[in-house]
Amino acid sequence: MFIYITKKKKDMKIREGSSVIIKYIGTFPDGSIFEVRGEDDSVTIDVGKGQVMKKIEDALIGKKEGDTISVPIGHMDAYGKYDEDLVFSVPLTQEVYIDRENYDEYKDFADGIEIGKVCTIPSFPKELQVDQVLNYRDGKGNESKVIVKEVLADRAIMDANHPLVGRDLVYNIHIVSVS
Q1: Residues 75-121: pLDDT tens digits?
Q2: Spatial distance between the Cα atoms of 48 and 17, rounded to a whole number of angstroms
């Protein structure tokens, strides 16, 4: 005869390798909210895989389903300090030689696009707005999110720093389930 003793799921403590579903409210130290993830958009984390900030993973270890924790995170452990090197300008138009391979890509960008000609085309498909967030691909093919900081007559100033860079954060986390 075998007797199996199993812990109730609710008593299971979080450890490295646990899969955890959480809901949270992200705030600044003054209590103003920058993000809410709740019932309809909870987050699943595989603890120890670096999917969230290390301070959050560390705070989850040893907790269990139903627990609620508050995790303060200093800006250097969150998104670091502001980096001026991540601010750059992009021309609003560019000169492109149109050939058979790229014609379909550019044909709707401007009037007068013809194969075999160098044409001036907009660098962006839509008019830019200050504080707009864009996916930007540099000349090397690297893609990142950028924020439009300023739109000038001939160029736009972009900022690739994370929107929460330089800010201390607090995550108020409710543990929905642990497996």
Answers
A1: 999 999 999 999 999 999 989 999 999 888 888 877 788 899 998 88
A2: 6
Domain of 102, in residue numbers: 84-159
pTM confidence score: 0.73
Do residue 88 and residue 73 come from a single domain? no
Read off the pLDDT of residues 20-31 as tens digits, 9 standing for 90 and up. Answer: 999 999 999 999
Phi/psi-derived region of residue 108, left when phi > 0, alpha when psi is between -120 and 50, beta in every other case: alpha
Question: Are 40 and 101 in the same domain?
Answer: no
- Best CA proximity match to 63, nearest among 73, 71, 75, 74: 71
Rounded to whole angstroms, what are the CA distances from 74 to 28, 114, 169?
10, 54, 6
User: Into how many domains does the chain fold?
Assistant: 2
